[in-house]
């Protein structure tokens, strides 16, 4: 069946599949130049983001570029095209199967990072987010849209994109780029691929009848391939065919090998772990999260002098309609979905308010949680303020002004909010899972609870309230939180080791 697949794809692949590719690649990776990394992503905070992937896509390539020639590949969404500035079209990528052809553009970020942009208006120039329309519904052609991304990444890696540049390694991210590793394998190319899982719960599941238009050979549709409970999984394809898998915290890397967190892929992930091909590397946060310099804050402060927190707290109280108070201020900055434990935060609100606390909430998500939060604010005017939506400046002032961040996530691959809060002297109160367990030291720079239930959550909140009443202990914990290392240096170093292993393995094959 693979022979039939290659015959059908011959015209599309002939220009990029060279018999001497491995020899050329091995001779090109030398001490005379830096290795070339193509970072493939469906979002980047410079132009468009839906979650933590966008933040990582903006920060990690920048942390790596002093060691590598790292470039980014992203679809040409309307938001990207309107912000990136001048784009030079450098190639045309051919149509394949049911995947339309597209232009390959090249541009630069403001600080000079090369970005390749897929120019395909019919797939990407739409209102909405990278994944859903303005009403929150998945785009009906998401399989084609992101197969185009994966196929383009494979084309570029094989020399069919930028005539002056070729990737030595692909760094893929989540299900939207998962097929890139599969396309390379089906072409018989041994180019190392790293897949980072940012959230295993999102897998890119599509019907089996989509295989022909995506160029997926029939014999790849089995347990040792792309099949997942009778359907096609882009994420499983990425996990199965990639050289190495990473995820965004050490604890989450362990959790996803167990049935309760593995989303049906725990068996394959256990196999990868046993093979030494699964690593957990915690995310960092970018340098803009600095309370001594942040332009969004009404008053700046540091770990040595955090008196400026009060001015930010008063600003938050005013903007959220809360009464002036000397009591504790709790923040919720989150997607309003079940995973984030929003129901637990809502249930805990009555006790917080009865103890003299106030709550400010910003976020959007499931309609039921948005409605329950509005009703909560109506029941407790002056004590609970809710803003549906998201505003970067308001969120930063909430981190800066709050005493505690409520983060009772049922699972959290890495989490960034707890690190933002710590950097700004707000103590996270969080479920001991994933990256929350790896970044919060209970009773030192935040509070953890072990079971995602209201009783355990309330126990952690009560410990927070007790700490608030002890100004010396509160100050010590704030200082510890603010001084915890939050940057990308350590994480980037670990990614470099993964790259080196993957390249070494590919060179030996």
UniProtKB/TrEMBL annotation:
Catalytic function, reaction form: [(1->4)-alpha-D-glucosyl](n) + ADP-alpha-D-glucose = [(1->4)-alpha-D-glucosyl](n+1) + ADP + H(+)
GO molecular function annotations of the record: alpha-1,4-glucan glucosyltransferase (ADP-glucose donor) activity; alpha-1,4-glucan glucosyltransferase (UDP-glucose donor) activity
Record-linked InterPro entries: Glyco_trans_1, GS/SS, Starch_synth_cat_dom
Top-level division of the source organism's lineage: Bacteria
Residue ranges constituting the Glycosyl transferase family domain according to the UniProt record: 325-474
Source organism: Microvirga makkahensis
Gene this chain is encoded by: glgA
Record keyword Glycosyltransferase present: yes
Protein name: Glycogen synthase
Binding residues annotated for ADP-alpha-D-glucose, in chain numbering: 49
EC number(s) recorded for this UniProt protein: 2.4.1.21
Pathway stated in the Swiss-Prot or TrEMBL entry: Glycan biosynthesis; glycogen biosynthesis
């Amino acid at each position: 069946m693979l022979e039939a697949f290659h015959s059908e794809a011959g015209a599309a692949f002939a220009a990029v599949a060279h018999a001497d590719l491995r020899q050329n690649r091995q001779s090109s990776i030398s001490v005379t130049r830096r290795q070339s990394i193509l970072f493939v992503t469906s979002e980047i905070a410079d132009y468009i983001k839906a979650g933590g992937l966008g933040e990582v896509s903006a920060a990690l390539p920048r942390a790596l570029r002093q060691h590598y020639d790292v470039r980014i590949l992203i679809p040409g969404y309307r938001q990207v095209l309107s912000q990136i500035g001048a784009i030079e079209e450098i190639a045309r990528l051919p149509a394949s199967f049911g995947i339309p052809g597209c232009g390959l553009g090249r541009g630069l970020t403001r600080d000079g990072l090369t970005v390749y942009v897929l120019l395909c208006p019919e797939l990407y120039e739409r209102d909405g987010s990278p994944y859903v329309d303005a009403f929150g519904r998945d785009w009906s052609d998401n399989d084609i849209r992101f197969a185009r991304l994966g196929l383009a990444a494979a084309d570029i890696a094989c020399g069919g994109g930028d005539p002056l540049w070729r990737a030595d390694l692909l760094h893929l991210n989540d299900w939207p780029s998962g097929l890139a590793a599969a396309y390379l394998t089906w072409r018989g190319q041994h180019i190392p691929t790293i897949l980072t899982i940012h959230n295993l719960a999102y897998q890119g599941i599509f019907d089996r009848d989509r295989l022909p238009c995506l160029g997926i050979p029939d014999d790849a549709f089995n347990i040792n391939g792309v099949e997942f409970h009778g359907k096609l999984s882009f994420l499983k394809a990425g996990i199965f065919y990639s050289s190495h898998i990473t995820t965004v915290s050490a604890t989450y890397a362990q959790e996803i090998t167990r049935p309760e967190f593995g989303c049906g892929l725990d068996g394959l992930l256990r196999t990868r772990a046993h093979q030494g091909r699964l690593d957990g590397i915690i995310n960092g946060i970018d340098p803009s999260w600095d309370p001594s310099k942040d332009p969004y804050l009404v008053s700046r402060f540091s770990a040595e002098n955090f008196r400026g927190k009060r001015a930010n707290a008063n600003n938050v109280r005013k903007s959220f309609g809360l009464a002036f108070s000397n009591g504790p201020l709790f923040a919720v900055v989150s997607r309003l979905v079940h995973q984030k434990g929003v129901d637990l935060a809502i249930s805990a609100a009555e006790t917080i308010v009865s103890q003299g606390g106030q709550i400010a909430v910003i976020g959007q998500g499931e309609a039921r949680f948005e409605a329950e939060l509005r009703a909560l604010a109506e029941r407790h005017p002056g004590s609970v303020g809710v803003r549906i939506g998201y505003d970067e400046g308001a969120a930063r002032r909430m981190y800066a002004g709050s005493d505690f961040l409520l983060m009772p996530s049922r699972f959290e691959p890495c989490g960034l909010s707890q690190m933002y809060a710590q950097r700004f002297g707000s103590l996270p109160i969080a479920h001991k899972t994933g990256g929350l367990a790896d970044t919060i030291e209970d009773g030192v720079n935040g509070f953890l609870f072990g079971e995602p239930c209201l009783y355990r959550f309330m126990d952690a909140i009560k410990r927070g309230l007790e700490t608030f009443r002890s100004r010396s202990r509160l100050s010590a914990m704030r200082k510890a939180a603010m001084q915890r290392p939050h940057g990308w240096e350590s994480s980037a170093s670990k990614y470099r080791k993964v790259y080196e292993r993957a390249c070494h393995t590919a060179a030996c094959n």
